[in-house]
Amino acid sequence: MRRDRAWGMVGAATAVLCAAAALAQSTRSVWDGTFTEDQAKRGESVSQKECVNCHGAALSGGEEAPALEGAGFLSNWNGLTVGDLFDRIRKSMPQDDPARLTRQQDADVLAYILSLNRFPAGKTELSAQSEVLKQIKIEPAK
After folding, report:
1. pLDDT band at 8 (very low <50, low <70, confident <90, very high)
2. Helical (H) or strand (E) element with 133
3. Domain extents in the chain
4. Do the Cβ atoms of 119 and 136 come closer than 8 Å?
5. Which residues contact 93 (CB under 8 A, 6 or more apart)?
6. Does the pTM exceed 0.85?
7. In the 3-class helix/strand/coil scheme, how is 59-89 assigned residue by residue?
8. Residues in Cβ contact with 7 at an 8 Å cutoff, skipping those fewer than 6 apart
9. pLDDT tops 50 at residue 95
C-alpha cells in the first residue's frame, strides 16, 4: 500500500510537470513573429478606411480616440494578450458601427497595429480566433 501511494505521488508530480511544460510552450509573445507582412499591409488598407477618422492618419491618436502605437499604447496593453486586444477591436470598433468588420479584417488590422509598434513579422498569419490569440502575450520589451 505504501508503494502504491509513492507511485501515485510520482505520477501526480509527473503530470504537474508535464502540464507546466506544455503551458510554457504554448504561451508566445508578440516578439515571436505572429503575423505576416502581407497581412499587416491588408490591415493598413482596412485601417485607412475604418480607423483613421478617430485614431488619426498614423493611428497615433485623435481627439476622440487613443493612439494605437507608441509607448502609451504599449503601456496600456502590457501583460495582456493579443486575444484581449482582438476582442476589444472585434466588439467595439469601428465606434460608429461596432462589430461590422469580419474577423479576418479585425485580425488584419491587429497585424497592422503590431507592425506599427515594431513587432517583427513572421511566416504565419495572425489567427482570427480569440482562443488562439489569447496565447500571445503583449510585451513592450523583449
Report:
1. low
2. helix 130-133
3. 28-137
4. no
5. 50, 51, 101, 106
6. no
7. CCCCCCCCCCCCHHHHHHHCCCEHHHHHHHH
8. none
9. yes
Instruction: Provide the pLDDT confidence category of residue 64 given band limits of 50, 70 and 90.
Output: confident
All three cell numbers of 17, joined, read: 510537470
As a residue count, the chain comes to: 142
Q: Which residue has the cell 478606411?
A: 49
Cell of 114: 503590431
pLDDT at 15 over 90: no
Could you tell me the sign of the dihedral formed by the alpha carbons of 128, 50, 61, 87, in that order?
A: negative
Contact indicator for 72, 66 with CB cutoff of 8 Å: yes
Question: Which of 8-12, 48-52, 81-85, 137-141 comes out lowest in average pLDDT?
Answer: 8-12
pLDDT over 60 at 7, yes or no: no
Q: How far apart are CA 102 and CA 107, in angstroms?
A: 9
**Domain at 28-137: CATH code:** 1.10.760.10
